[in-house]
Structure formats: C-alpha cells, structure tokens
Design a protein that fits this description.
The complex is a heterodimer of chains A (114) and B (110). Helix content of chain A is 0%, strand content 49%. With 114 residues, chain A is mostly beta strands. The relative contact order of chain A is 0.33. Chain B is mainly β and 110 residues long. The radius of gyration of chain B is 13 Å and the shape is globular. Classes of the chains: A mainly beta (114), B mainly beta (110). The interface between A and B is medium-sized, with 24 and 21 residues.
C-alpha cells in the first residue's frame, strides 16, 4: 500500500511568486491534514479536511494560504504571494475516518523563498 | 490539549534500552498520550499511544504513571536507526490535529 506522497519534494521560488504544493493521501483516508515547520520552530498544524470539507483551518497563518481538496482525494496548498517567512517544510498527513489513532505523514515539501 | 515537557536531548548506547520521559501534569481524564518520532529529513512517524494502561507494540513500550501525569517511552534495544526527535503529544479523542512541541532529540551511539 502506497503511503502519503507529496509533490514536489523541494521548491525554490522568489518572494512574490506563487507555489502550489500537492498531497496525495493514502487511498481511503478521508482525513487529510497540513502541517508545517518553519526554520527553527516546532511543527505546527495548519488545517484539516474531512473528505472535501474543511473541518478546521485555525492554523492557517493568513489569507495568502489557500488549501483545497476537490473531490475529497488529493489536496493542494497554494501560497500566493510567497514571503520569506513562508520558507520551511510542509507536511501532509492522512488518517481513516472515525479513528483518532495513527496519522500517516508524508515526507514533506521543503519550500525555500528567496 | 495539555502541555507536555520533555528533555531537550538524550544519548543512548546502541543495544541498550532508551527511556524517554514526558511530563503532562495537566492531562485530563479523556486525553490520550501519543508518541511520534521524526528521523532526519522524513515526515513524523507514529510510534504508540495510550490512555491509562501500559501499552506495547513492535516498536516500543509506553509506561503511563497511575496518576497519568507522566509517561515513559521505552525502546527496548536501541539501534543507530532510532536516532531521531521523539515527540510526546497529549490530545483529546475528538481533536484530530497533532500539537507537536520541541521533542527530545535521541542520539544512539555505537
């Protein structure tokens, strides 16, 4: 069974540009989460989807970040326009519905904003 | 979710047991204790979780004190590949997001 995959693994962009990160959860997992770790900080929760609906987006830092999960399968996280402080590693995780046990994390996307 | 306190770093000799402590003195009755780890350049990995009773799986054992104010993750025979940052997380059953702290950086030495 394939794990959570994220694309790209690395992205280097200039300040003001737009970047879109993609996450493919484990097949059948209705819960999908985005987290990020910015330089020197702890891993922080961004938002949570249940299928295609945003269940909790309390961790989204500002309106430059837009997450979507059309059709309830893969998800995208768009940063527009990117700022220097957005640099970090963005993780996606998924889990089955009706369980609060294990969240499976992807390898992350390392975003560098120059 | 309750706050957790972990040592910043620990060392362990290869082949020996690694015992990682976590304090969660404000834990409430229906909060679970979870342990994850992050090996360098990888995503966090689930290890184990528990509520009141001690738990064991193929990776580790979790010992929770009777008053539930602290717990210990035990890696029975640490290997070099267990070198990672270990996170103790306390969360309610209804909360789906994981609140990571700073964790403990475990270094297993030959």
């Amino acid at each position: 069974e394939a794990g959570v995959t994220q694309f790209p693994s690395h992205s280097v962009i200039e300040k003001g540009q737009t970047v879109t990160l993609r996450c493919d959860p484990i097949s059948g997992h209705d819960n999908l989460y985005w987290y990020r770790r910015v330089m020197g900080k702890e891993i922080k929760f961004l938002l949570h989807f249940v299928k295609e609906s945003k269940q909790d987006e309390s961790g989204m830092p500002n309106n430059r970040f837009l997450a979507e999960r059309t059709g309830g399968t893969y998800s995208t996280l768009k940063v527009q326009p990117a700022e220097l402080e957005d640099s970090g590693v963005y993780f996606c995780a998924s889990s089955q519905l009706w369980t609060n046990n294990e969240q499976f994390f992807g390898p992350g996307t390392r975003l560098t904003v120059l | 979710d309750a706050k957790t306190t972990q040592p910043t770093s620990m060392d362990c000799a290869e082949g020996r047991a690694a015992n990682l402590p976590c304090n969660h003195s404000t834990i409430s009755g229906n909060e679970y204790v979870y342990w994850y780890r992050q090996i360098h350049s990888q995503g966090p990995q689930y290890i184990i979780h528990g509520l009141k009773n001690n738990e064991t799986n193929e990776m580790a054992s979790l010992i929770i004190t009777e008053d539930r104010k602290s717990s210990t993750l035990i890696l029975p025979h640490a290997t070099l590949r267990d070198t990672a940052v270990y996170y103790c997380i306390v969360r309610f059953l209804g909360n789906n997001d994981m609140r990571f702290g700073a964790g403990t950086r475990l270094t297993v030495k030959p």
